[in-house]
Amino acid sequence: xxxxxxxxxxxxxxxxxxxxFNCTYSNSASQSFFWYRQDCRKEPKLLMSVYSSGNEDGRxxxxxxxxSQYISLxxxxxxxxxxxxxxxxxxxxxPLVFGKGTRxxxxx
Amino acid sequence: DAGITxxxxxxxxxxxxxxxxxxxxxWSHSYMFWYRQDLGHGLRLxxxxxAADITDKGEVPDGYVVSRSKTENFPLTLESATRSQTSVxxxxxxxxxxxDTQYFGPGTRLTVx
Lengths: 108, 113
What we know:
By secondary structure, chain A is mainly β. Chain A has strands at 4-6, 11-14, 19-25, 32-38, 45-50, 55-57, 60-65, 70-75, 84-91, 97-98, 102-107.
């Protein structure tokens, strides 16, 4: 079983839609969790950390379920500029473990 | 300018040639990393370094050599390039106090003919 698994997508959604991605991880000793965003032909950048109590940053909400070993990312009111690949990242000690990413395409 | 830079940004070389990709960061971060990214594989760790003169293999180290004589530089050398090493290479760095957040360079697009 891979350490971090994501649905590769693509998720094609209209502007204004709400979309959610899940990511599962295999190592129960994982310490911290993140979502990175990668635009086409660009480097990955940290989008947000994922806290046990769940956290929100504007239209983005991240949640962690340690019992089921998954994290989620919810994007509300999708914008065209949200089109990107979203990487699930798990920290089980350096180095970080990156998922392969979920591709989101927001359509006008 | 502060940040993490990579050079060259684009490189075309031939099979069998030696190629060195450069990575430079100005934050004095302890950790530095080299990844390659290919369609269908996501980011794969090649090598990483916890400090100057300390390096460790990642998931796909074969065919690559690294060194870290200075904290700010982490060059990656392909000793004898092969077509399978055609890829986009990303360098990243993170602070020892906060290894969680990795900052990536803009990438080097390498083509081996």
